[in-house]
Backbone:
């Protein structure tokens, strides 16, 4: 429920499809045509699902593939949205399945028992550095039973983790509620969201290698800053801030 008016905004208008190339693409077209904030695009299957860094996102029937149109205030830092999306997934998993311990692998992977169960891909449209809209694309492996190689080593689904089918509709409802709450509360106070992200983090204190456009950096993860950047302590002792674009964690 929106903290602003008491009326749900996320998913007030929903476009549902059996199969699309990518819900992000459709949401982008709708946003260009003026669709309202909170408009949702959901498809049972995607044949050209987009993952981060141009990767293909495996999106067969059984998963939850959705894109949300957001029109954040100009002061809102877009890189925070990936973190919000990942927290939304983690909160929903924890709320629906108290036995599972979801984690977040910065900036946008939702993890269960070391394997990826969901991800977030945010795309912003800006004119002269002013954000006009953001598409928050979220994929959650709900009832997927088998993953092709090499995904089978790194991905999991809710069904695989809890041993029975899960209702996509109920998970979607829970996720939208959590995302809306996070989105509006974060506009007044992002620090408590960051605290929550740190609590869910699977990387804090760990040694990681991060590949960026500037090269590879090795270091220990110290935290996440106000803009959603990852803070590393390099072997030299220096701190390095990594922004969420173009990052691959080894
Ligand atoms: C990632 O690489 O972790 C991000 C994956 C995001 C996938 C979702 S599924 C719904 C939406 N439509 C897409 O084409 N991608 C996102």
Residues:
């Amino acid at each position: 429920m929106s903290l602003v008016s008491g009326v749900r905004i996320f998913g007030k208008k929903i476009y549902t499809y059996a199969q699309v190339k990518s819900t992000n693409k459709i949401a982008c077209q709708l946003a260009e045509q003026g669709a309202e904030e909170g408009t949702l695009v959901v498809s049972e299957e995607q044949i050209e699902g987009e993952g981060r860094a141009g990767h293909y996102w495996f999106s067969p029937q059984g998963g939850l593939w959705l894109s949300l149109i957001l029109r954040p205030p100009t002061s809102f830092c877009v890189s925070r949205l990936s973190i919000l999306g990942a927290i939304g997934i983690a909160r929903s998993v924890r709320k629906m399945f108290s036995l599972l311990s979801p984690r977040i692998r910065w900036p946008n992977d939702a993890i269960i028992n070391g394997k990826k169960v969901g991800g977030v891909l945010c795309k912003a449209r800006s004119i002269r550095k002013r954000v006009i809209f953001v598409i928050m694309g979220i994929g959650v492996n709900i009832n997927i039973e088998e993953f092709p190689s090499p995904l089978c080593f790194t991905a999991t689904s809710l069904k695989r983790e809890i041993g029975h089918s899960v209702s996509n509709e109920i998970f979607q409802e829970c996720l939208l509620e959590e995302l809306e709450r996070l989105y509006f509360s974060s506009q007044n106070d992002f620090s408590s969201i960051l605290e929550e992200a740190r609590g869910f983090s699977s990387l804090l204190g760990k040694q990681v290698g991060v590949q960026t456009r500037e090269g590879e950096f090795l270091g220990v993860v110290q935290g996440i800053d106000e803009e959603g950047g990852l803070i590393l302590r390099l072997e030299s002792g220096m701190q390095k801030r990594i922004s969420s674009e173009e990052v691959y964690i080894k």
About this structure: Residues 168-188 form the longest helix (21 residues).
